[in-house]
Amino acid sequence: MIGHQAEKLEELVASNTKAGPRKSKKTRFIAITSGKGGVGKSTISSNLAYTLAQRGLNVGIFDADIGLANLDVMFNVKIKKNILHVLKGEATVSDILIPITRNLILIPGESGDEILKYADMALFERFMEEAQVLDKLDVMIIDTGAGIGEHIQMFLDAADDVIVVTVPDPAAITDAYATIKTIAALRDDVGMIMNQVKSEKEAVGVFEKIKKVARANIGSDLDLTLVGKINADAKVASAIKQRALFSALYPSALATKDIEAIANKVALKLERNVLVTSNESGLSGLFRRLMDHF
């Protein structure tokens, strides 16, 4: 059933492209994932999105962890409908978008295995048309579920960058390594963020141990890089309790400086992006990539 739908969708995408590609900014898709829950993945996703938006970039954050949807808590907003409602024809894309701050939009998602169950051709055609409102996004952060389920792998393979978040805890490190090993079957580049560390030295030390094990067991083809670290900081927990972003509430906190350093690296990659056809942009661009898996 899904295979048949995917064929129809591929035909649709091909016909849309023939209709004449519009020029647009290429949206950079960054999937942020983790081996287990509770390591701060969504906290990092939301604060990174906010920090990039504060620089004047157009940012979308896609909540692909709908089973444990907590971006609404992070941003202190109420979600009534998500992307599944759009695909079912029960809402428009504009209906579900939640503006957070200037240049930052939350896109309430749904787990990947649900998305194409409702991909009726007429609905999908309307969805792709409506999704063009997001074609001007510079970056879309995809906050995936924890673990290595098939629907999560779909998002990881579709993204330009994949970042695995972990903390310096033996169980979390083991899970992060298992996640990296799974991702390595899909792609040869993986970034890491070490969260809740005492220092840069601890972050680098733990990362180098993971990298050494990965090189020995996965192979030297894997490009594993340390994107950054977030210092353990009581202000992060304080902000979460207040349903606020630590980077907004505590601009001079150590953790905020760390997220700004990570945002710098992301922004440098964005600067290298050029004008491309709009099928690589926004929400419709993401769904075109996801369709490659069906």
From TrEMBL:
Keywords: ATP-binding, Nucleotide-binding. ATP binds at K36, G37, G38, V39, G40, K41, S42, T43. InterPro entries: MinD_FleN, P-loop_NTPase, ParA/MinD_ATPase, YlxH/NBP35. The lineage of its organism: Bacteria, Pseudomonadati, Campylobacterota, Epsilonproteobacteria, Campylobacterales. This is MinD/ParA family protein. One of its GO terms (biological process) is negative regulation of cell division. The keyword Metal-binding does not apply. GO terms for cellular component: cytoplasmic side of plasma membrane; cytosol. GO terms for molecular function: ATP binding; ATP hydrolysis activity.
